């Protein structure tokens, strides 16, 4: 039975059925024996992909050990402090039962003692449970905490669904814990012996997680909120590396985490930025880590009690060339397109940006790809999955709108991409955590309104794509196009050019060929009143009717020539210079 035909997700209650568990047990046995087509009836896609990951990571299905991960004194301190009242209450509720709970950090490492009945806790500690025990999927295989972190949502694993046989007598459910800003702070893992467990363990654990998150919110200070809000304002562009730093807080977006992979670099940056915070003045500085130089723009964020935090954006600075005596400096060749470079190196790449901003065009410009729309998977999941598997096995693929892929299909698709032999690019509006492990490269495409300098080349490329490569544009047309805000991005520009071409007489696009709403846009004031807007439209219509002759248009409107010139400047109209 093919993986694409496996159930995407069974109900939690159904997974406790003894007949279904027997099918899962048989499927696991066939899978571990290396069967090419195991019978996956009763095995959800999430469990199957977790089995695949566990096997590829070398997890021993016969092992019973719970490995330890050394803990620092301060690890997850805030999470532990916030969760302590809830965990103590849980210990009372679990007395005289065969259920127990564990508080894990973001790495699935236990940071709070086991809570439950004394007998259960003792048995768990004998197996290696306790502070420092790690429940990462890469270490102990399929379990509630591991899949919960992988999918960033609550997840239940029942009996034989666990990768290791040692856990087949229990049910485990993991629930991610988030701080007030949506960042993952840890995981609450609840376990219960299968003989007395049922699906109600899931809502029970979710209720406990909500209580912990409320405690986290209460522990968050106003200073931390102020710093995070400033950080969020400055990190809206995914490609810009941004950090937020105060004496107590360090926040970094994905771009900054990729830039600063060394802990020593992070410490050096924090020290330099805190010095700026102490000085109390925003500044631009250059820092050198190893052989890399960075320009760091530090912006002060005022906190309470006269203290400051800093939001800093980082960008690499090219090292100045060392010239031999008598040699003249030659500017470097333009940098290779990062999408093209990712393809050259074989790295899967995510292209992010607003809808219609030209994300797919960016990929097509550097690679010959077969395209697949993930939005179509919502109505035909199995068929779409089969098509995806076939295309990925044949050559390079562009998956458009990957973020529209149903959550039930995501793990399977990402697994296919990771295991495939061909290059894959995908377009998304924003990067979600489940994409990061599969796509090591992210390239942001700015909306058209923020890259008007690219407009001439883009218009030329779009006209060529529309079969009108020899069509010229007047300077006035390009000036107007550069002023327009383009709410529909590149897709809107393409539609505009296509509409003009079907009506165009000759081989030159002039101001007369532009739609009124674009040709009259000029420097629009978003707060423009009705009278001003009406006057602007009357002046524009009069100019167009007079073939852009200012004097004739002024006569039509009954205004002086000087008034007409003032209105043209006021509304930002671009008039052909000969008129």
Automatic annotation (TrEMBL):
It comes from the Bacteria. The keyword Membrane does not apply. Keywords: ATP-binding, Nucleotide-binding, Transcription, Transcription regulation. It holds the Pfam family AAA_lid_14. Residues 441-502 form the Sigma-54 factor interaction domain. The keyword DNA repair does not apply. PROSITE patterns: SIGMA54_INTERACT_4. This is Sigma-54 factor interaction domain-containing protein. It comes from Microbacterium wangchenii.
């Amino acid at each position: 039975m093919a993986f694409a035909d496996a159930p995407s997700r069974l109900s939690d209650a159904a997974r406790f059925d003894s007949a279904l568990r027997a099918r899962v047990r048989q499927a696991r046995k066939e899978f571990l024996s290396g069967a090419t087509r195991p019978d996956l009836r009763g095995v959800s896609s999430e469990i199957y992909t977790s089995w695949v990951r566990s096997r590829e990571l070398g997890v021993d299905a016969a092992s019973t050990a719970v490995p330890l991960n050394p803990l620092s004194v301060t690890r997850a301190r805030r999470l532990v402090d916030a969760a302590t009242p809830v965990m103590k209450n849980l210990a009372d509720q679990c007395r005289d039962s065969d259920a127990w709970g564990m508080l894990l950090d973001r790495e699935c490492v236990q940071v709070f003692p086991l809570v439950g009945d004394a007998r259960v806790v003792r048995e768990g500690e004998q197996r290696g449970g306790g502070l420092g025990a790690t429940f990462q999927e890469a270490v102990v295989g399929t379990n509630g905490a591991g899949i919960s972190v992988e999918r960033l949502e609550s997840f239940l694993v029942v009996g034989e669904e666990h990768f290791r046989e040692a856990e087949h007598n229990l049910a485990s459910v993991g629930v991610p814990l988030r701080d007030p800003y949506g960042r993952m702070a840890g995981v609450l893992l609840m376990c219960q012996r299968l003989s007395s467990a049922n699906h109600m363990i899931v809502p029970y654990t979710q209720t406990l997680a909500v209580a912990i998150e409320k405690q986290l919110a209460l522990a968050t200070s106003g200073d931390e909120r102020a710093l995070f809000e400033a950080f969020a304002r400055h990190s809206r562009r995914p490609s810009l590396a941004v950090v937020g730093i105060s004496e107590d807080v360090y926040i970094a977006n994905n771009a900054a985490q990729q830039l600063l992979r060394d802990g020593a670099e992070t410490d050096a940056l924090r020290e330099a930025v805190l010095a700026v915070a102490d000085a109390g003045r925003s500044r631009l500085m250059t820092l050198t880590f190893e052989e890399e130089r960075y320009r760091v723009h530090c912006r002060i964020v005022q906190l309470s009690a006269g203290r400051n935090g800093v939001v800093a954006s980082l960008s690499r600075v090219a090292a100045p060339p060392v010239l031999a005596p008598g040699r003249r400096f030659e500017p470097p060749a333009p940098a290779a397109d990062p999408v093209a470079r990712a393809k050259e190196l074989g790295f899967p790449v995510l292209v992010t940006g607003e809808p219609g901003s030209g994300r797919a065009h960016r990929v097509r410009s550097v690679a010959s790809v077969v395209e697949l729309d993930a939005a179509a998977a919502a109505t035909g999941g199995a068929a779409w999955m089969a098509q995806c598997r076939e295309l990925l096995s044949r050559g390079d693929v562009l998956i458009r709108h990957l973020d529209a892929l149903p959550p039930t299909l995501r793990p399977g698709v990402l697994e296919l991409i990771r295991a495939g032999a061909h290059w894959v690019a995908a377009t998304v509006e924003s990067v979600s955590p489940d994409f990061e492990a599969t796509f090591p490269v992210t390239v942001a495409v700015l909306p058209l309104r923020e890259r008007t300098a690219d407009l001439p080349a883009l218009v030329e490329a779009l006209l060529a794509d529309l079969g009108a490569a020899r069509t010229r544009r007047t300077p006035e047309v390009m000036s107007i196009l550069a002023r327009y805000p383009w709410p529909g991005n590149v897709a809107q520009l393409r539609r505009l050019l296509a509409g003009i071409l079907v009506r165009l007489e000759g081989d030159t696009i002039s101001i007369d060929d532009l739609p009124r709403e674009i040709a009259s846009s000029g420097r629009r004031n978003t707060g423009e009143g009705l009278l001003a807007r009406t006057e602007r439209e009357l002046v524009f219509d009069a100019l167009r009717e007079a073939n852009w002759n200012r004097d004739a248009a002024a006569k039509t409107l009954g205004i002086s020539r000087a008034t007409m010139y003032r209105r043209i400047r006021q509304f930002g109209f671009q008039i052909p210079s000969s008129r």
